[in-house]
Sequence to fold (354 residues):
Amino acid sequence: MSKQMFVLTSLLVAVSMILAGCGTPATSAPAAPAATAAPQVIVVTATPGPVTAPEGGEIAVIVKTGNSSFWQNVQTGAFAAQKELQAQTPKLSVTFLGAQSESNIDEEINIVESAIDRGVKAIVLAPSDVTALQPAVADAKKAGIPVIIVDSKLNGDPSQYTAFLATDNKAAGEACAKLMIDLLTKEGKTEGKIQVMSYVAGVGSEVGRVGGFNDYIKANSKFTLLATQYSNADMPTALNQTTNVLNANPDLIGIFGANEPTAIGMGTAIKNAKLGGKLVAIGFDGNSVLAGFVKDGTLQAIAVQSSFNMGYLGVKDAYDVAFAGKSVPAYVDTGFLMVTKDNIDSQDAKNVLY
Fold:
């Protein structure tokens, strides 16, 4: 029995030693998380490309309407900028939206609010109404979304948006008025009726452009300005209005069409009435129809903005602010060119006509 007890005791000792050995990993288990530290370091150091490269995101370009060659050329400029910038930020997305018409202000406001809701990185905005769009722009600022305004300067506090890019519309309107006076003076006319065919009353570009034209005529001539007509930037409306003006004023000596659809309607009415060259007619903007009117003498000139630059520089500035953290100029004059039959085939004209 003593031998059996000895063997049993020896076995119990051996088992207890084995159990003690198996318990060691259990007591050291909390140290396991430390072993995951190495993979975390590897992940950071193995990030492809530059560590500071900006991530993707959307720049929303929102214009007064998509139904115009002028705004479509803004789109062309915006997408050209996107193509360049995708070399730095491959996942960059530039979207382009506009209302059905320039007079549909509520639709544009809804488009802006939708862009804010989906968390775009930046907005490039051509406001159809320089007062009504103020709350939407303020909402964008509250959401931390920089806004670049193009074409029409927004009323109110300029700190609500980052930058303003546009033609100097007052200077362009004055240039159109000066040319009108010069051409009429060459014909020996120093008095007579001039008609302004405008688009949407109160829009920032209209206020500067038509205001500049009217003020210059009043200050520098004895010509009589008839009551301004507003087409709401609708070509058929401008056509009908101009036809009525021509019929009611057979002694009209000058006429100014202040934006693309208005000038096209105006030019079409002049052509239909076979009055090309019989009165001084100046338009604004530069699509192929208006260029054709200059070539055939229906219009004596068109003041052409660089709409491409509005889209291109607008997106570039939006990117610099939202993605690169850079500062941009508060105002950029995108320029205009007075195109006549004498220079319409020049390279300068080709650069702005669309």
Observations:
- The chain has two domains: 57-167+307-334, 169-304.
- Residues 2-28 form the longest helix (27 residues).
- DSSP finds twelve helices and 13 strands in the chain.
- Confidence is low (pLDDT under 50) at residues 1-53.
